[in-house]
């Protein structure tokens, strides 16, 4: 999502929270997920006027808790992956109409009806199914070695689900990291990334300064150095870590 925003010269001065202390979040209870939502809202207000919830699990829970009323506190804006998903569906309605869609996310995201409802409202003829790919999310998020077509996280069940789809929506923020690999394995499936539609939802104007990024890492699953190394390589920018 941040790469998409930077291409549009938005959010040029950003703080990225790599919250590994709660990963994998998608298998936790509604109450636990709600507690993380509140923590992110509180922490974000200390460093910014805008929070981008670049996590589908938290975005769906945030939407369930607050809906269109939002919960801002000292924040001026909150943009969630659910907002990006809705924007994607609106922009791609002609391509989505009448198609078989597969929403790939965590166990929590896949078990909720929000994304299916968004598609049904904009594209009544689309057929939506969901798949919980928590192991795939966990492996990518922790920088596990991706083995392409033979990767064990591409289970037989997941392969069959993708094969049945005409469009697969990457409803987990880290999945775009292996999008090209997935496209190589499933060349007949169109993969869409909701995060790529975030720029039009962001407030304010395009930035005029060079991109700046601070990284904050929680937990012990992945080192701060590894996250910074990836950020610098993937985004092409020097970072500072806190």
Question: How would you describe this protein?
Answer:
By secondary structure, the protein is of the alpha/beta class. The protein has two domains: 2-82 and 197-241, Rossmann fold (3-Layer(aba) Sandwich); 83-194, Rossmann fold. 40% of the residues lie in helices and 18% in strands. It has eleven helices and nine strands. It has helices spanning 2-7, 30-45, 56-66, 81-91, 93-96, 107-111, 114-122, 134-141, 156-164, 179-185, 224-235; strands at residues 13-19, 50-53, 77-80, 100-105, 127-132, 167-170, 190-192, 212-218, 239-241. The strands form three sheets. A four-stranded parallel sheet has the order 5-4-6-7, sandwiched between helices. Strand 8, helix 11 and strand 9 form a beta-alpha-beta unit. The chain starts with a helix and ends with a strand. The model has no long low-confidence stretch (mean pLDDT 92).
Entry keywords:
alpha/beta, Rossmann fold, 2 domains
Overall SS class? alpha/beta
Helicity, as a percent range: 40-55%
Average pLDDT value?
92
Overall shape: it is globular
From the 3D coordinates, which CATH architecture of the largest domain would you assign?
3-Layer(aba) Sandwich
Low-confidence stretches: none
By CATH, the topology of the largest domain is Rossmann fold
From the alpha carbons, calculate the radius of gyration and give it in angstroms: 17 Å
* Count of spatially separate domains: 2
> What top-tier CATH class of the largest domain fits best?
Alpha Beta
Number of helices: 11
Strands of the widest sheet, in order across it, are 5-4-6-7
Strand proportion: 15-25%
Total DSSP E strands: 9
Query: Could you give a short account of the major beta sheet?
Result: 4 strands, parallel
Order of helices and strands: HEHEHEHHEHHEHHEHEEHE
Distance between the termini: 21 Å
């Amino acid at each position: 999502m941040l790469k998409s925003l930077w291409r549009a010269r938005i959010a040029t001065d950003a703080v990225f929270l790599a919250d590994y202390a709660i990963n994998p979040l998608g298998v936790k209870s509604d109450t636990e997920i709600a507690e993380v939502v509140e923590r992110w809202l509180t922490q974000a207000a200390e460093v910014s006027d805008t929070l981008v919830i670049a996590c589908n699990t938290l975005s769906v829970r945030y939407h369930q808790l607050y809906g269109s009323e939002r919960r801002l506190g000292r924040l001026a804006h909150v943009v969630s992956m659910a907002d990006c998903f809705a924007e994607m569906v609106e922009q791609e309605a002609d391509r989505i109409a009448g198609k078989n869609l597969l929403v790939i996310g965590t166990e929590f995201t896949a078990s909720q009806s929000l994304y299916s409802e968004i598609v049904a409202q904009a594209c009544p003829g689309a057929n939506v199914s969901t798949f919980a790919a928590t192991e795939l999310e966990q492996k990518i998020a922790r920088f596990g070695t991706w083995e392409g077509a033979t990767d064990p996280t591409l289970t037989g069940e997941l392969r069959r689900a993708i094969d049945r789809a005409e469009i697969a929506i990457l409803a987990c923020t880290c999945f775009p990291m292996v999008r090209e690999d997935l496209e190589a394995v499933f060349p007949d499936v169109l993969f869409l990334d909701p995060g790529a539609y975030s720029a039009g939802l962001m407030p304010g104007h395009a930035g005029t300064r060079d991109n700046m990024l601070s990284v904050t890492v929680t937990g012990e699953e992945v080192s701060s150095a590894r996250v910074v190394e990836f950020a610098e390589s993937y985004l092409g920018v020097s970072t500072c870590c806190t």
